[in-house]
Design a protein that fits this description.
By secondary structure, this protein is α/β, with parallel strands linked by helices. The chain contains 14 helices and 14 strands. The protein has two domains: 2-201 and 376-387, 3-Layer(aba) Sandwich (Rossmann fold); 218-374, Rossmann fold. The chain has helices at residues 17-31, 82-102, 116-126, 143-147, 155-170, 179-188, 232-238, 256-265, 279-286, 307-314, 325-332, 344-353, 361-374, 377-387; strands spanning 2-7, 34-41, 59-64, 67-72, 108-113, 132-137, 173-176, 194-196, 218-225, 245-252, 271-273, 291-295, 318-321, 336-338. Helix 7 (232-238) runs parallel beside helix 8 and helix 10 (307-314) packs across helix 13.
């Protein structure tokens, strides 16, 4: 049995695509006869507060499904203040260095990036000719930060670019969740070994149910993080509800109060907010809707929203409004409709063109079958296992 360590900033009981992705990676490797350890902060995302069960602890170790999970101290914060966010990342980096100094580290280590500084700490202190370092890149930072308006091209940005290049250079293998990520890595290090490793979900999809024929409106649903990048508040303000549509929203995040305030101000608009729902319950709830909308406020190079794969596995038709490689995934696999990124007129035009008659039990089943055969986590894990 080969020992392997996974270093990540997100892990269950935290919610979101990042924690789910790493959990399924750890579980999948454990099932393939790897002895998996996970190193992660005390759970705090997305609230920015250490979860109640872990309050007052500096370190917590548990064994779950055979996986040893060590949770380290972090100064938790989701503040918009860049200094406080830097302190939060550095605090976890310091905890990692402390752990490295007093514990035996396996010869194979998978490091999650971003955050860049956390990945840099791991790549810097664990680099060794005798150790294989695998960098799992889910988003391209600092490029994504620049496109989101979080960074400006100044000295700090150049420092982050240097850190990014260091991380790629020291990696023996780079995993990327999109082809754009791998293209970017190869443009910097032409001979770097890479592997496309998508954020495919792993769950037992509930049975698809037919829509209620008495429903005359098309029910759009969004479920996930209500952050700046997703732009759900702007979506509420820009949708043309004369197109006989409803918008149903699940989740939590920075824009939650704005969304709730908008609904309160315009109570006659068919917008419904339900808050955060556990993933297993959400999968069942989502089956009552007609179309899942996946928006991004700005097109982010390298990003492919994991919701594409999750909704497809549920058999939900997708309305994609984010640009980039995600458009190719939806188009090539016939998962739904594409609206030009950032163009709300085009979005409303596409919505107006959708016919209820198109949303049938058989069309949903076809999407589900495509997802099952194409977005195959087992095949992906088999390929990765052979490279470790």
């Amino acid at each position: 049995m080969k020992d392997i360590l996974i270093i990540t900033s997100y892990f269950p009981p935290e919610i979101g695509a990042a924690s789910n992705r790493i959990y399924h990676l750890a579980e999948g490797l454990q099932e393939r006869n790897f002895n998996v350890q996970v190193l992660t902060p005390l759970p705090n995302y997305p609230t920015g507060k250490i979860f109640d069960a872990y309050q007052g602890k500096f370190k917590h170790t548990s064994v779950e499904k055979g996986i040893t999970i060590t949770r380290l101290w972090i100064y938790a914060s989701v503040s918009k203040n860049k200094f406080l966010r830097l302190i939060a990342m550095l605090s976890y980096s310091f905890s990692l260095v402390w752990f490295f100094a007093f514990n035996k580290i396996p010869k194979t280590v998978i490091v999650q990036s971003p955050p860049l500084l956390v990945a840099f700490t791991s790549m810097f202190f664990l680099r060794s000719k005798k150790r294989k370092l695998v960098l799992n890149v889910s988003d391209l930072w600092p490029i994504a930060g620049l496109e989101l308006g979080a960074f400006k091209k100044n000295f700090s940005y150049k420092m982050l670019e240097s850190i990014e290049r260091f991380n790629y250079k020291k990696a023996d293998l780079v995993l990327g969740q999109s082809k754009e990520i791998l293209t970017h890595v190869s443009s910097l290090f032409a001979n770097k070994k890479t592997l496309l490793y998508r954020n495919y979900p792993e769950f037992d999809a509930p049975k698809i149910t037919p829509r209620n024929p008495s429903d005359k409106n098309i029910k759009l649903v969004y479920a996930g993080l209500l952050g700046i990048a997703q732009g759900i508040y702007k979506l509420c303000t820009e949708l043309d509800f004369n197109n006989n549509i409803e918008l149903h929203i699940y989740g939590s995040g920075a824009e939650q109060k704005l969304i709730e305030g908008f609904i309160e101000k315009y109570p006659k608009l068919p917008i419904y907010f339900y808050g955060r729902v556990a993933r297993e319950e959400l999968h069942q709830v989502l089956l009552q809707y007609d179309v899942a909308i996946i928006p991004l406020l700005n097109r982010i190079y390298g990003s492919v929203p994991s919701k594409i794969f999750e909704y497809a596995k549920l058999g939900l038709p997708i309305l994609y409004f984010g640009g980039g490689e995600g458009e190719d995934v939806v188009n090539n696999n016939q998962l739904g409709w594409i609206a030009a990124a950032g163009d709300y007129s085009d979005l409303n035009r596409i919505i107006a063109s959708i016919q209820i008659s198109e949303i049938t039990l058989s069309s949903k089943q076809k999407i589900k079958e495509t997802a099952t055969s194409t977005f195959n986590l087992e095949a992906q894990l088999k390929t990765l296992s052979n490279l470790l």
